[in-house]
């Protein structure tokens, strides 16, 4: 378990956002305009009609750095399956994105023994106690393959210093269902920015060490809900995290016009963590999940210098073959005349340094 240390979260004013963001068109208001009832997608790329063979996937046990001081000037990104990444920034900040460590990404019956949805066919490469530290947990949205109550409970137990960054409306789930202290949960709207400041220890002279990360909530196109009764009640988001000399953009969502705005106003990014799976049949999936071809467009629009694919190789959520996304990603890069070394995939549990 992490020893306790001081953290503060400070809202940042005056950062760049498109002029239309002030109208909050993605908010659905009550009749008198006083309350946000739910959220919606506003781009034409959202289609309102939205209401395989198994192959072995490269898998290994991850190796994490034992101390914050051992990072040097490199950013380390470790893929833990699906859209879960563990990021070790050169400043020492450590961020966990969309942690789901269970076999089923669905509601569970009989005390959690049986899940209603697909079962994981590639096991988690580690457990939550194996992570050396978790300073920030960032959640994209409420679907079960991105938000897990048992995983959040484990983080609370083993990493009690963690701060949670979530979209609007999701704070109540964390405070009431997961029983996280309200002061550790930050709800954010699109184009909001906060600074996370840590005081995890002292240097050799006995002086307190402070390290900082900027966390930005950015637009996305998707939906949310954990039951038939809470559809779109919480906001879905993409995210950017920067600390020290490195910046990361994280999304699991399909192509939409917001990516070009994000690249223009917040890019470039050193690394993009971009989805490449769960895209067939396109008639139904194109408005919610990116294909490998879409992923290359997202990579370019957001002005990422390098990219890693995710959202494949963990659960069979849709109808494409499990090993198809990396192959189509290579073909998409080749067809656009792009260097295949700038955007690729790694195995579950593997770490890439940037």
TrEMBL record:
It comes from the Eukaryota. One of its GO terms (molecular function) is zinc ion binding. Residues 94-305 form the Metallo-beta-lactamase domain. InterPro entries: Metallo-B-lactamas, NAPE-PLD, RibonucZ/Hydroxyglut_hydro. Gene3D superfamilies: Ribonuclease Z/Hydroxyacylglutathione hydrolase-like (3.60.15.10). One of its GO terms (cellular component) is cytoplasm. An N-acyl-1,2-diacyl-sn-glycero-3-phosphoethanolamine binds at residues 144, 289. GO terms for biological process: N-acylethanolamine metabolic process; N-acylphosphatidylethanolamine metabolic process. This is Beta-lactamase superfamily domain-containing protein.
